[in-house]
Amino acid sequence: MTEEAFLQLCEHLSTHLWLQSLLVVAGTCFLEDAGRCAVALLVAAGQIGWWLALASMTAGGMAGDIGRYLIGRYGTSFLVSLRWVDRTRLEWMEEYFRNHAAKTVLASRFLPGARTLAFCAAGVIRYPFPRYLALLFIAALVQALIFLKLGAFIGDRILPYLRDPLNRTVIVIGLILTGVLMHLAVAWIKRRHVKKCSP
After folding, report:
1. Residue by residue, what is the 3-state secondary structure of the chain?
2. Where are the domains of the chain?
3. What is the largest CA-CA distance in the chain?
4. Which candidate, 75, 142, 149, 176, has a CA 20 to 30 Å from the CA of 194?
5. Whole-Å CA distances, 57 to 28, 50, 83, 190
6. Rounded to whole angstroms, how far apart are CA atoms 108 and 82?
């Protein structure tokens, strides 16, 4: 499912709340942040209700992470044998998770690269599932609220400017120039660092 197909399905199901909710849960579970951005903008446009989006985004976020926990709990040896999960990194994460479970769950929810490793590690060390579920609920709820607030801000303050073709052109050129300048700045910093380190 692509982001465009997801958006079109959500718009067509605006009168079917249960189907729309199920689609938002599936979209945020599999499309992750792209699905959350789409849902937040649809809420800002009035296509999806705020409470439905909040509940469905929270459930969708939790569903994927519960799956990761179960994979860690029941499939670790299989994942390590296929080298999908590095054993040394997993051991480090297990130790870290034992000492910093709450911080790990909350931080990993916002760092897509860390999420799979952290939540599989929670399953591997058999972290108590009810406690994991409570931490996961808080993290997914906070993330859904942040996306909805950002979507409302973008819908109210930024999207009206994008309706004008001249504004769109200026913004696109500005974003491209910003990206080029950032790339040049990083390259300059790296060259400077190499010169300092070289004898």
Report:
1. CCHHHHHHHHHHCCCCHHHHHHHHHHHHHHCCHHHHHHHHHHHHCCCCCHHHHHHHHHHHHHHHHHHHHHHHHHHHHHHHHCCCCCHHHHHHHHHHHHHCHHHHHHHHHHCHHHHHHHHHHHHHCCCCHHHHHHHHHHHHHHHHHHHHHHHHHHHHHHHHHHCCHHHHHHHHHHHHHHHHHHHHHHHHHHHHHHHHHCC
2. 3-160, 164-199
3. 69
4. 176
5. 6, 10, 31, 40
6. 23
pLDDT digits (tens, 9 = 90+) for 182-198: 888 888 888 877 777 66
Q: Which two tokens stand for residue 155?
A: 């819908």
- 17 band by pLDDT with thresholds 50, 70 and 90: low
CA distance 58 to 36: 10
